[in-house]
Amino acid sequence: MANRPAAGGGVWVDVGPQRFARWCEGFARRHGGALSRPPRLVADDAACAGQALELAAADGSTATCCVPFPPLAVAADTGLIDALIAHTSAVRIVGVVLVRRGGFAVGRFEGDRLQEWKVGARHVQGRTKAGGWSQQRFARRREGQAREAYAAAADNAARILLPHVGRLDALVLGGDTGAISALRADQRLKALWSKETAPFLNVGDPKMSDLRTAPEAFRAIRIRLVEAAQPAQPPRSSSSSAESSSADGGRPPGAVGAPWQDPS
């Protein structure tokens, strides 16, 4: 997934648990060769809206790693990076509900295996440029078609997820926030909302491929990377190049060692 700008500076990077240790090593190597202090656990980080693991590099760069499925419990003899990898890789039962006007996808995962699912598409009337009564008629039709799509999503969320709500570790939502708001009004699903966790998955009209790849997103460690500012290097002028050539004994460009001498 491409890096995304982060509010307040830096970028968001998503890293899977199987790559996280290597990513941390690379972060330290690229930013001064080492961490400036041991990793620390932050209970309530503003960027993550919750628990986070914070890394600080020797050059001043920082990496704030949001903890998926908080809280993170750490044993006394386990390092924080290893603890976060083990925590994120644990097998959990996760419900996924993706909804937009044009369709829905509902699934129940155990680990990264999709156990039960339903994907549906709904035709929603396109917008019209006509005015007056025609525009109002099309608007009412669109609203009716959207309600049908939301109702189908709610029916399948109730069928697939509610029987397992006691065992459900988390609920991940995605699609369109307005569509999700419509589902929240369905009293049948009230027991699910207490399981809701980040991230919110941004997808188009949900398809089976979006559902199958959902674990890559909800098990990823979201990292806010803020790199230290690098001092600007002034451009070399032609006069400084000439001075350099004179000072180094007239060596041809790229030559090393003793000053070049004319063999004649």
Automatic annotation (TrEMBL):
InterPro entries in alphabetical order: eFR1_2_sf, VLRF1
Domain Actinobacteria/chloroflexi VLRF1 release factor: start-end pairs: 94-224
UniProt-annotated stretches for the region Disordered: 226-264
Gene3D superfamilies assigned: eRF1 domain 2 (3.30.420.60)
Compositionally skewed regions (Low complexity) per UniProt: 227-247
Protein known as: Actinobacteria/chloroflexi VLRF1 release factor domain-containing protein
Organism (species): Actinocrinis puniceicyclus
Lineage of the species this protein comes from: Bacteria, Bacillati, Actinomycetota, Actinomycetes, Catenulisporales
